[in-house]
Amino acid sequence: MEQLVATFKVKKGLAQMLKGGVIMDVVTADHAKIAEDAGAVAVMALERVPADIRADGGVARMSDPELIIQIMDAVSIPVMAKCRIGHFVEAQILESLGVDYIDESEVLTPADEAHHIYKHNFKVPFVCGCRNLGEALRRIGEGAAMIRTKGEAGTGDIVEAVRHARSVLGEIRRLQNMAEEELMSFAKEIGAPFELVKETRELGRLPVVNFAAGGIATPADAALMMQLGVDGVFVGSGIFKSGEPAKRADAIVKATTHYQDPKILAEISRNLGEPMVGRQVTDIPESDLISTRGW
Amino acid sequence: MNIGVLALQGDFIEHVGVLQTIGVMPRLVRLPGDLSGLDGLIIPGGESTTIGKLAEAFGLIHPLREFSKTHAIWGTCAGAIFLSKDVHRDQPLLHLMDITVERNAFGRQVDSFEIDLPVPFFEDGQDHPYHAIFIRAPIIKSVAGEAKTLLTLPDGRIVAAQQGKLLATSFHPELTPDPRFHQYFSALARS
To answer: What average pLDDT does chain A have?
Structure first.
């Protein structure tokens, strides 16, 4: 009776346990406690939320391990942390800390402009961002055990999250209607591994769990993404940049469960205080967009 | 046979998938009214703190306790935690099974594992071990009163227990296509 660890099934399995849940960005152990008490399924430990990274400019890197350890000690739910795209040494460090998931994230400044990390070599599972099906399947090919659509982080504007979810889910619907002989040229067209294109077609969904991220600021935003067909949501700046984080966190958790029930959504959306201020994506110069990072 | 799956959070769709392979068309349960007419309920894997909090917020704790008096309930991983009477920390529990549970007992995610376990109470359980998947899994620390140990790891740690029509497994039968645990539970719900 041999125990097998770090199999793809086990990596993917943790993401399956997070489904129907909310993963919240936290920058202190106190935030992490608030998130856990509000019903978050996991927290993302980082030094600055995306809205602040955007405002501060400069190079954004992996967080101080001390902060990540404090957050891991503060909560019983899984803790995720971000490394830069292609920065496999940051990933090695995060793995050695014992984080439960690594987000190879476009929110940080990329370390490699051509390559992502070869994630199969790690014991710890990875989540990666995508804007379309090709990008999602390239990341899974490299070993990502969970996918999130990117949205545009730190804006509080849901429009890009919707665009990316519609793109991924729409392409899957298109794929399901294709004849078999069309699959290879489709794989070539979207730059995705052929075997994963076939598997996605058979499953009618991505082979791993798919959350939405980037711009979710209200319970209605979370429910919108769930109704579009994602498995759960990441909320970054939307909670701790709002007027009353604990209340808003609690409401977004409830909305992600009861996403199909407008009466409950109306009830939990009442008196939540000020949402994060937000910034319209169309007002952001192209060079400042985060979601275009990733190859 | 009407089986429900608690759909507050977690991998409830995976349970639905396995149940469909054994001819059961399950119903998703999110509010107390959804329990009526069910013969049994599965509480899926997920985060036990989230499931407990949502159950409390939407008034499910009392109806679930009432339901358990006459019906079968099976908790997998987070669901097993939620069924227990004590987890040595402050979180909402159903306190239905006379078991204490230690959360994340094997460590963090890098320690999650798969293993083949012989299951003596399955007809073919010795020759065809059950492939069990443990993800940030709890273990059952103690079993008392009416609760009985069903299954242990080779080192003796308890990973499944039963108390009448209540069943707790610290692993995830919903993540494997092998339907034997779902068949076992549906027989329990029928009895």
So the answer is: 97
Instruction: Give residue for tokens 């519609």.
Output: A166
- Taking residues B170-188, report their average pLDDT: 98
Selecting among B77, B88, B102, B146, the annotated active-site residue is: B77
pLDDT digits (tens, 9 = 90+) for B42-54: 999 999 999 999 9
Cβ atoms B72, B2 nearer than 8 A:
no
Task: Output the DSSP codes for A105-165.
Answer: ETTSPPS-SS----GGG-SS-EEEEESSHHHHHHHHHHT-SEEEE---TTS--THHHHHHH
Quote the tokens at residue B80.
């097993």
What tens digit of pLDDT does each residue of B104-163 get? 999 999 999 999 999 999 999 889 999 999 999 999 999 999 999 999 999 999 999 999
Domains in chain B, CATH or no CATH each: 2-190 (3.40.50.880)
Residue A201's Cα: distance from chain center in Å? Answer: 23
The total of other beta-carbon atoms located within 10 Å of residue B121's CB is 11
Residue A82 is a catalytic residue? yes
In this structure, what DSSP letter does residue B37 have?
T
Q: How would you class A286 by CB atoms within 10 Å of its CB: exposed for 0-12, middle for 13-18, buried for 19 or more? A: exposed
The dihedral through the CA atoms of A31, A122, A13, B173 has a sign that is negative
Instruction: Average the pLDDT over each of A47-61, A77-91, A222-236 and give the range with the smallest value.
Output: A47-61
Residue A43 Cα, gap to closest chain B Cα (Å): 12
> Torsion angle of alpha carbons A124, B115, A75, A99, nearest 10°?
-10
* Arithmetic mean of pLDDT, A193-197: 98
Q: Does A17 touch chain B (CB under 8 A)?
A: yes
Taking an 8 Å cut-off on Cβ atoms, the answer to whether A16 and B109 are in contact is no
CA angle, residues A191, A192, A195, in degrees to nearest 5: 145
